[in-house]
């Protein structure tokens, strides 16, 4: 078992730098999710840890040992690919055993490990089938099995769930989480899905444009997003943002509404309000005209412009609301739940 | 498509039957010719139904000295020469093309694309175009009248290299990455992953190349002077004008018939893989 250290990792393609000085310490047994929009460099970062991409500058250490120049096979890692990358001409058993066979492990030991992994993943009855005879979910398990039999120090997952249908994805998500906890193997998981990231990760690294926006636990990211990007990325539906003017312990929204805050600031700010934090309050400062309703059962989403502006906002009310389209409603929220960001740098204030 | 137009289907059948007749008639005449006595084939009209001399002719063709009054090698030897040549060409071409395509697709080296285009350009230089210089080289190397001389100049193949390159490009990159993480070196990857995944394409190409090799005429004609090295396709032609006597059609037809069998056998044996190789896209 081993932790992973990234020390000022940089990746350039020719003159274009796509990853900028990424540093992070991942502890032994930790499950870290790298999350970000497509093209943010998250897969590249994972592949650099795996040894499939060269490192332009900086260092990757696994278990305290710098692995920059080691071949992928010598880094003691296992990787699960988005399209599973199973060898189509080999049976499930051969697929799982291939890496061990190359390592010249005794046959009895290979059989034992394959059997054990197959039982953990409940694919023992498919061992003699070819990958094309399996469903997407089963192939996913085989790909996991191939990683498990190696008994590596690190698991790397490159968007392994994105080829599955929604229901299976939720199920596999939980299984990966359980499995990782059970085996206690340090894992890095790349995804663009923030819900997947929040449920899987001990810690999340939010990447944007090749920079680390924030690295922290899901709750930290939700409660104290470090930037407008993280605030907008984490949480569903997304946070409402307004350009506002701060004056001590309150901010003035574009329509003149004054919202009290817990954090003192002055001048131009961006004010972020989570849809689920706004509550009905006849004397609240925030007024909205409901244009559209989404009844999701557990919650009701209200869409409409902030009163007096054309800026759309979303409010999430618990349960099935009796609100009608066209209603004008007032809302408030506790001052400590108002997020403020610097208007110039987009970074969090306080 | 379900259509009910009797006139159209009658017409279609007539066209198809005509096509079959055009293709099958020469083969039929070959079979008929191979089953009569030599004299019967010189009378007009030539017979259209098989005679009773088939096995007599077969024995004489295969194990007799072949044609009377000539010093050609027995036909079984020519069949063997042709077989060895066709196999060497097909296997040699496939082996060389697999390796060169593997190098071009999976390795980064200076002027990689330059080498690829150099190979590709040789498409414009078939044996017929470079026949004199090639003959000179083979003669200088002392390879006249040898299997190597028969096959080596025909082995280098741009077509097969290009085809395998296209096949390898369809193998997902993740397969290579996965193999690298599993610890497979380049040659291990080649044997364990690339070759099995190209199996059907190899089979399809083998069929095409075997027939290509079997049907070679000009090159063997040029470099084999020794009758022991003669291939069957060349010798059929020579039988026609042998020894200034009227052609012995029964023997010639039987030889032609024998010459058809190995390619047919290869096609039948590999048919399933051949079709898969040309149509299958699932990787």
Write the layout of secondary structure elements.
The complex is a heterodimer of chains A (about 350) and B (about 280).
Chain A: E1 4-13, E2 16-26, E3 31-35, H1 42-50, E4 57-62, E5 65-66, E6 77-80, H2 92-102, H3 107-120, H4 136-149, E7 154-158, H5 166-183, E8 186-191, H6 194-200, E9 203-208, E10 211-216, H7 218-223, H8 228-233, E11 240-252, E12 258-273, E13 279-280, E14 286-289, E15 292-295, E16 299-305, E17 312-318, E18 328-332, E19 339-342
Parallel strand pairs in A: 3-8, 3-9, 6-7, 7-8
Antiparallel strand pairs in A: 1-2, 1-4, 4-5, 9-10, 11-12, 12-19, 13-18, 14-18, 15-16, 16-17
Helix pairs in contact in A: 2-3, 2-4, 3-4
Chain B: H1 6-33, H2 54-63, H3 75-106, H4 112-121, H5 131-140, H6 147-155, H7 158-169, H8 173-182, H9 186-197, H10 199-214, H11 218-223, H12 232-240, H13 249-279
Helix pairs in contact in B: 1-13, 2-13, 3-6, 3-7, 3-10, 10-13, 12-13
- The coarse overall form of chain A would be elongated
Oligomer: heterodimer
SSE order of chain B, one letter for each helix or strand: HHHHHHHHHHHHH
What structural category characterises the helix and strand content of chain A? alpha+beta
What's the CATH topology label of the largest domain in chain A?
Answer: Rossmann fold
Q: Which spans of chain B of ≥5 residues are poorly predicted at pLDDT below 50?
A: none
End-to-end separation of chain A in angstroms reads: 37 Å
Based on DSSP secondary structure assignment, what is the total number of beta strands of chain A? 19
**How many structurally independent domains of chain A?**
2
CATH superfamily of the largest domain in chain A: P-loop containing nucleotide triphosphate hydrolases
Mean model confidence by pLDDT of chain B: 85
Q: Main sheet of chain A?
A: 6 strands, mixed
Separation of the first and last Cα atoms of chain B: 31 Å
């Amino acid at each position: 078992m081993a932790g992973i250290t990234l020390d000022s990792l940089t990746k350039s393609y020719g003159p274009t730098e796509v990853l900028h000085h990424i540093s992070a310490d991942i502890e032994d047994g930790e499950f870290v999710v790298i999350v970000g929009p497509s093209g943010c460099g998250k897969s590249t970062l994972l592949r650099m840890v795996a040894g499939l991409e060269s490192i332009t500058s900086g260092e990757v250490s696994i278990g305290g040992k710098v692995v920059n120049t080691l071949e992928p096979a010598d880094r003691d890692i296992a990787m699960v690919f988005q399209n599973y990358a199973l060898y189509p001409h080999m049976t499930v058993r051969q697929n799982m055993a291939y890496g061990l066979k190359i390592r010249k492990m005794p046959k009895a030991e290979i059989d034992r490990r394959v059997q054990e992994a197959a039982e953990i993943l409940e694919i023992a009855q498919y061992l003699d089938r070819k990958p094309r005879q399996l469903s997407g979910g089963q192939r996913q398990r085989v790909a996991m099995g191939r990683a498990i039999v190696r008994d590596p120090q690190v698991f790397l997952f490159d968007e392994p769930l994105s080829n599955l249908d929604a229901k299976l994805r939720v199920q596999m998500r939980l299984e990966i989480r359980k499995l990782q906890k059970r085996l206690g193997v340090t894992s890095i998981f790349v995804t663009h899905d923030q819900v997947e990231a929040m449920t899987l990760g001990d810690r999340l690294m939010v990447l944007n444009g090749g920079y680390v926006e924030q690295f922290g636990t899901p709750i930290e990211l939700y409660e104290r997003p470090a930037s407008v990007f993280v605030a907008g990325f984490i949480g569903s539906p997304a946070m409402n943002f307004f350009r506002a003017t701060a004056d001590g312990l309150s901010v003035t929204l574009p329509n003149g509404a004054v919202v009290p805050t817990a954090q003192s600031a002055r001048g131009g700010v961006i004010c972020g309000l989570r849809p689920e934090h706004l509550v009905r309050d006849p004397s609240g400062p925030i007024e909205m005209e409901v244009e559209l309703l989404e009844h999701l059962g557990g919650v009701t989403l209200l869409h409409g412009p902030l009163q007096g502006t054309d800026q759309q906002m979303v409010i999430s009310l618990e349960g099935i609301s009796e609100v009608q389209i066209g209603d004008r409603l007032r809302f408030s929220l506790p001052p400590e739940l108002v997020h403020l960001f610097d208007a110039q740098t987009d970074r969090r204030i306080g | 498509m379900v259509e009910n137009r009797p006139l159209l289907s009658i017409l279609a059948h007539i066209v198809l039957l005509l096509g079959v007749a055009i293709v099958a008639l020469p083969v039929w005449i070959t079979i008929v010719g191979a089953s009569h006595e030599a004299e019967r084939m010189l009378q007009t009209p030539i017979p259209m139904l098989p005679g009773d001399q088939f096995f007599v002719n077969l024995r004489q063709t295969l194990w007799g000295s072949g044609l009377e009054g000539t010093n050609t090698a027995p036909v079984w030897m020519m069949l063997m020469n042709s077989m060895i040549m066709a196999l060497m060409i097909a296997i040699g071409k496939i082996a060389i093309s697999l390796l060169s395509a593997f190098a071009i697709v999976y390795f980064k080296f200076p002027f990689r694309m330059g080498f690829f285009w150099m190979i590709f350009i040789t498409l414009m230089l078939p044996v017929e175009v470079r026949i004199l210089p090639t003959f000179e080289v083979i003669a200088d190397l002392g390879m006249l009248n040898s299997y190597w001389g028969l096959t080596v100049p025909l082995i280098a193949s741009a077509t097969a290299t290009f085809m395998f390159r296209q096949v390898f490009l369809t193998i997902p990159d993740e397969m290579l990455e996965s193999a690298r993480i599993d610890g497979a070196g380049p040659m291990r990857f080649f044997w364990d992953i690339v070759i099995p995944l190209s199996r059907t394409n190899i089979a399809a190409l083998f069929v095409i190349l075997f027939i290509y090799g079997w049907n070679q005429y000009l090159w063997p004609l040029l470099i084999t002077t020794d009758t022991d090295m003669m291939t069957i396709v060349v010798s059929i032609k020579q039988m026609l004008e042998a020894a200034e006597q009227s052609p012995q059609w029964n023997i010639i037809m039987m030889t032609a018939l024998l010459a058809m069998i190995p390619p047919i056998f290869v096609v039948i044996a590999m048919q399933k893989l051949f079709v898969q190789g040309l149509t299958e896209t699932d990787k």
